[in-house]
Amino acid sequence: MRFTDTLERLRGGLIVSCQAYPGEAMRDPRTMAQIAAAAVVGGAAGIRVQGIDDIRATAHLPVPVVGLWKDGDAEVFITPTLGHAEAVADAGADIVAIDGTRRPRPDGLSLAETIAGLRAHTDALIMADCGSLDDAIAAEAAGADILGTTLSGYTGERPKSAGPDLELIELIAARCRRPIVAEGRIHSPGQAATAIAAGAFSVCVGTAITHPSTITTWFADAVAGARG
């Protein structure tokens, strides 16, 4: 996919994140691929998947695939090194999502060095998962193509809001020119629409669509609470 074509296909659209945690019943690339295919049928403009096998299993889908690789137990674990990022691109991702914060990376490279190295390796787009306005400004300066609010509330720079961090979306939109993907704690269609109104280029939703264990907990807790 060409650069502009990929972005235009995501403009004003929904990206569905299809991920399961290790040890969960759905933690299988085939299952994630089936969920991703169902999301496309439902109108997803793109999908986001984690892990090399999952990326390979979904690369054939007729929408842009945002790929990442969660690895390690350090603070930076979303596609944490240049090697991880290259492997994600090689697996077939149209967009490589990497940790876009200013925190130290496991391989010692800066964010700018990581983006430059990945740019030399592939023509895939690069999405920086940010946690603050300063992260987004630095990621844009480093050459990221897309700015995500994925890590808002998880890096200590911003409070963890109950819903999407609309203030951060507005702040980034006012200071940066790169497209913004609103991601994180978007639990309803109304919240997704509000994120677009706040300045997001597109919206990424995962848990509320593709994580039945969590969704079941929401309903089970509500029912239990109603019983008194």
TrEMBL record:
Can you tell which superkingdom this protein's organism belongs to?
Bacteria
Q: Which GO terms describe its cellular component?
A: cytosol
For this UniProt entry, which residues form the secretion signal? none
Q: What EC class is this?
A: isomerase
- Annotated GO biological process: carbohydrate metabolic process; N-acetylmannosamine catabolic process; N-acetylneuraminate catabolic process
Alphabetical UniProt keywords: Carbohydrate metabolism, Isomerase
Which pathway does it operate in? Amino-sugar metabolism; N-acetylneuraminate degradation; D-fructose 6-phosphate from N-acetylneuraminate: step 3/5
Gene3D superfamilies with a match to the protein in the record: Aldolase class I
KW Isomerase (keyword) present: yes
- Name the reaction it catalyses: an N-acyl-D-glucosamine 6-phosphate = an N-acyl-D-mannosamine 6-phosphate
Q: What is an example of a Pfam family matching this protein? A: NanE
Q: Which SUPFAM superfamilies match?
A: Ribulose-phoshate binding barrel (SSF51366)
- GO MF annotations, alphabetized: N-acylglucosamine-6-phosphate 2-epimerase activity
What EC number(s) has UniProt assigned to this enzyme?
5.1.3.9
Sum up the protein's function in the record's words: Converts N-acetylmannosamine-6-phosphate (ManNAc-6-P) to N-acetylglucosamine-6-phosphate (GlcNAc-6-P).
Protein family membership: Belongs to the NanE family.
State the PANTHER family in the record.
N-ACETYLMANNOSAMINE-6-PHOSPHATE 2-EPIMERASE-RELATED
Specify the protein name: Putative N-acetylmannosamine-6-phosphate 2-epimerase
User: What organism does this protein naturally occur in?
Assistant: Microbacterium maritypicum
